[in-house]
Amino acid sequence: MPSIKCLSIQVDPRDNVAVVVNAGGLPAGSVLDDGTELVEQIPQGHKVALVDIAQDAPVLRYGEVIGFARKGIARGHWINEEMLRMPEPPALDDLPLATRKAVEREPLEGYTFAGYRNADGSVGTRNILGISTSVQCVAGVTDHVVGRIKRELLLRYPNVDDVVALNHGYGCGVAINAPAAIVPIRTLQNLARNPNFGGEVMVIGLGCEKLRPQRLVAPPSLPGQETAQTVHSSILSLQDERFSGFNAMVESIMELAQTHLEKLNRRTRESCPAADLVVGMQCGGSDALSGLTANPAVGFAADLIVRAGGSVIFSEVTEVRDAIHLLTPRVIDEETGRALLLEMAWYDDYLSRGQADRSANTTPGNKQGGLANIVEKALGSIIKSGSSPIVDVIGPGERLRRKGLTFAATPASDFICGTLQLAAGMNMHLFSTGRGTPYGLAMVPVIKVASNSRLAGQWFDLIDVDAGRIATGDASIAEVGWEIFRLILDAASGRTLVAAERLGLRNDLVLFNPAPVT
Ligand code: CA
């Protein structure tokens, strides 16, 4: 049998485990670089003990404790999730805030993309007519109208890329005045202001719903952020007495759409600095290589965007909670640190009210991919944020306030996180995956980065970047990071269509509604 090169990665010299990198895993008898001999077959992405680990001793990865051995584990053995007892999450009342001095980094100058400049200063990467809805009842009608606009109108407006209905499950049958209702309501308000809609907001309502359509175009909650003139809104209610039958409604919406399409069609791309990028970071279907390949490369690209003066959003509270002690030193000041801790505490409480805890996050696929628990997943997940200081923290559905790296508190659910990042003002989305997901959004380009080359090969037309080359030594984190950065500029300019756009893959918008449903 020809000998194969045994590939494994030990991230930190303190780690007592390494992760097997070879596609298909490694058979018993394989010998790693440090002399560890595998006593059993170990799948790709899974951990092998590099030393004898005693019962109750800590198991370290990324130089951090990911669990304690339930029983003694001998060197060369596979460590699966059942062999680890999960540590407690870091307490929130005694963490260092803003203690890490930011490293001065050379600004990155001269990188541009072709975008659509808006009146409020934001920049779109696509030119889309967004049709907002105030209640789910109208979704059938908006879907029908979007189909007709695409077939009958869009050809006449060559500068407009698309028309998208912002359908959702909110608006009525909900406790509209409950304190937590602010989350879905401001999400809908801010979604309509996404830079890719160019300040042209069209709202379709029903007429009797609790969420009044006017609220969706209400002035932004942050004074001074925009002036009233930067958003052109029109509202149409289906119960309006002037409509006799379905066709009358549809024709009226089509007419309204035309007035907005005419304005959008006058938008043209112009050269914009990379500082106008607002890039949302997310991961989904992670495996143990995600934290070694895709997420470090995404984090490298995040640092490049920040150095270029742009904005980066990272999120997913349940996937940062267990690594929060690594983030609080990175906040820019104590006030931002306290805001970060408040978001963690809010989510701890939210989960405990639902009688769940953070361990509910990991999926069977995560575990098959080698992630033992949420602690290990979180340590690999926060690498997406790169190493820049955290300049701001925003709540779910709030709009971005500052350039640089912002933590936007969201659930880790791919669709809810994506929806909330769209509301924050994201104009490009980076999504890393190990197990593989065909994730895509209608409103912004989504660049999908695979953590392993097996997935990138199998899903050759669904994945945009293969970061698995980092594990095999065929590319460095910096090389893949630069590749992602350049792809962001090309995709933002419309020069390159990402896989999800080419294939027409679009997941639904999903609102986060922590308030009661009635
Ligand atoms: Ca996610």
Structure description:
The protein is an alpha/beta fold. The chain folds into three domains: 88 residues, Archaeosine Trna-guanine Transglycosylase, Chain: A, domain 4 (Roll), CATH 2.30.130.110; 138 residues, Ribose 5-phosphate Isomerase B, Chain: A, CATH 3.40.1400; 223 residues. The protein is 27% helix and 18% strand. It has 13 helices and 21 strands. The strands form five sheets. Strands 17-18-16-15-19-20-21 form a seven-stranded parallel beta sheet, sandwiched between helices. A four-stranded antiparallel beta sheet has the order 1-2-3-6, with no helix packed on it. α5 links the parallel β15 and β16. α2 crosses α10 and α5 packs across α12. The radius of gyration is 24 Å and the shape is globular. The termini are far apart. The mean pLDDT is 94. Calcium ion binds next to β15 and α10.
> What's the mean pLDDT score?
94
* Percentage of residues assigned to helices: 25-40%
Q: What's the shape?
A: globular
Largest sheet: 7 strands, parallel
Q: What assembly state would you assign to the polypeptide chains in this entry?
A: single chain
The total count of helices amounts to 13
Ions, cofactors and other ligands present here are: calcium ion
Task: Evaluate the radius of gyration.
Answer: 24 Å
Biggest β-sheet: strands ordered side by side in the sheet: 17-18-16-15-19-20-21
> First CA to last CA: what distance?
66 Å
Proportion in β-strands: 15-25%
Low-confidence stretches: none
Strand count:
21
Please state the structural category. Answer: alpha/beta
Task: State the domain count.
Answer: 3
